[in-house]
Amino acid sequence: MVKYNPKLWFKYIFKFSSIGTFRMLWKEMVIVALTTALFCWLHQQCLLQWDIMSNMAAVYSIIGFVLSLLLVFRTNTAYDRWWEGRKKWGLQLNNSRNLASKIAAFYTNDENTRLFFFRHISSLGFAMKEHLRNGVKQDQLTLNPEETNNIMSNKHVPNAIISAMYNRIVSDKKAGKLTGEDVLLMEKDMKNFSDILGACERILNTPIPFSYNLFLKKFIFIYIVTMPFSFIPEFGYSSPFIVTFIFYILVSMEVLAEEIENPFGLDPNDLPTEELCKKIHNNTYELLTKTNT
Question: Is residue 51 part of a domain?
Fold first, then answer.
């Protein structure tokens, strides 16, 4: 995730970073500009006439307004997905702290159990992060070798980690180490883990409907391709700059929406899940490895 100072907005106006849409689209912008310039030359040489389109600028303004509304809806929908993902990962961090605090209080004199939950709570964050990408990597888990073998034998690693913690809680309840009230307090946190994971999977596995996405791309393409026929009779050789600028604005909004609609990946503007996982690890380590006196 890109970190920046929002108060220095004037500085970023003239900055073309490697992750900006300008560097992503400059080749397409050149093609649009050259194509429009070619149409201008053909029109000026009387080799290509389209007088019937010369009074269509007002129509294109209306179409552009409709297109901008569609793009705003598209961008807002993508941002809603990004923001919901961020809220779920914030809840994951808070839920991990809450569970670790309770375990530290319930198992004051049981270091082995505290370390067991530390390993699993920390591993759950990293397992969720990788599960939402390309699959869980064994080297990122903080489990011991035996626990790693048991967990990695499952197809759904985050579920297996949650289940292992739940089984430990039930086992300790039967052994008399926990009271019924203790179990109820921790059960809420265990349920929250599953709810957070399910919500993130829903965001990941439910993309924007294909028909809507395809229609918007076709709409932008047709709008940009036909725009020179309306602008050239009125603006002449200024048309390539106007058309290219409009192309950059419209397509940039679509590119930005595509980038943030799946917030769990490795794009520059995706969620900082790696940092959040490390924070979960550090916070639970601090809570569960210190002996309370």
Answer: no
